[in-house]
Amino acid sequence: MIAKRIPTILPDLSFEEALEVTKIHSISGMLSKDVPIIINRPFRAPHHTISPKSLIGGGLVPKPGEVSLSHYGVLFLDELPEFNRSTLEVLRGPLEDGIVTISRVNSIFTYPCKFMFVASMNPCPCGYYGSKEKECTCTEQAIAKYIGKISGPLLDRIDIQVEVNGIKYEKLESSNNIETSKNIQKRVNLARIIQRERYKNENIFSNSELTPKLIEKYCKIDEESKKILQIAEKLGIKDILNKYPYQVSGGQKQRCASARAIVNSPKLILADEPTGSLDSKSARQLLEIMEDMNQKMKATILMVTHDPLSASYCSKILFLKDGKIFNRIEKGEKERKEFYNEILDVLALLGGDARDVR
To answer: Could you give the C-alpha distances from 291 to 269, 297, 315, 339, in angstroms and in order?
Structure first.
């Protein structure tokens, strides 16, 4: 039901788009005599038993498949894992290129297929994995096998993935005023007008049609954004930048907090157990970034830690015991390994002495 509402909020077809859609349906023999030109965006929802040829196009005289019939519209695949894997894999090229090329002995046919790909699936075979209302009865192996039907390359081509929880009756019968599709479409149409004006000399209609060359022209990344991406990549959080806090682990949250702290190149950083929830690789990466900021940007970093490895990245260390300074050492010209061993020696003394034994 939600998927069927998508065309109602998409921008109106332009005359050029309507002509392309009409030509495809005319070639397929699907154009009604009463409708000389298609003015509404297509919505196609094939059954999961569909064959690769029907999805992509083919035949003795190749005709457009569902991907081309969805051109400038929506292709919806319900219960995605129920589709044959070989059928789903043929979507990878069309999603990437926006065209389908079908070769025969005497001819080659190329059909456009710039569509919005929408799919739905359950989280597991029984459908209740992660549900707060009913317990899942599936084994881990069954869940892995079910989700594994969708290949990684295909998932990479799906830009937005959303978990939808069940809706209780109270919300369904609520009489609260909600925004209508018509009002949403007005905003979408306004955005499309802006895009058409921006790309009027580029022979494209929207942002989704930008080529790598045009992305460089219209989507220039400023220095601050570049720095964000560099730090995110170094801390291993580039893949979670578009996720919500509840979707990431504790270690990932800590790395995000660290990235926020250092992205603006502060002159003073207060770090309380900065590597506490991190694995060894992430901890080392964060410490190297902080060390680099200290040496190259002259940032002052005040760190509180119980970890001797983290402490070995510092230039000066104060050891506290019972609220008082117990010892102080400086790295100077020492190598990190030598400094690390010196830290361990002080910690051995810090642990106690003969007077503590009863």
So the answer is: 12, 10, 9, 15
> How is residue 95 annotated by DSSP?
H
Q: Edge-to-edge, what's the strand order for the sheet holding 116-119?
A: 43-44, 74-77, 116-119
What is the length of the chain?
358
Count of other CB atoms within 10 angstroms of residue 57: 26
Q: Which two structure tokens, joined as six digits, stand for 179?
A: 């925004």
Sign of the Cα pseudo-torsion (49, 53, 57, 58, in order):
negative
Summarize pLDDT for 189-228 with one digit per residue, the tens: 999 999 999 998 998 888 888 888 999 898 888 888 888 8
pLDDT in tens, 136-169: 999 989 999 998 889 989 998 998 888 888 777 7
Backbone dihedral region of 203: left (phi > 0), alpha (psi from -120 to 50 degrees) or beta? left
Whole-angstrom distance, CA of residue 16 vs CA of residue 20 = 7
Strand, helix or coil for residue 194: helix
3-class state of residue 261 by DSSP = helix
Instruction: Record the tokens describing residue 172, joined without a space.
Output: 């369904």
Q: What is the pTM of this model?
A: 0.65
Beta strands in the chain (DSSP E): 43-44, 57-58, 63-64, 74-77, 99-103, 108-112, 116-119, 268-272, 300-304, 316-321, 324-330
Q: Helix 250-262 to helix 223-234 angle, to the nearest 10 degrees?
A: 140
Greatest CA separation for the chain: 101
What does DSSP say about strands 316-321 and 324-330: parallel, antiparallel, or unpaired? Answer: antiparallel
β-strand partners of 43? 74
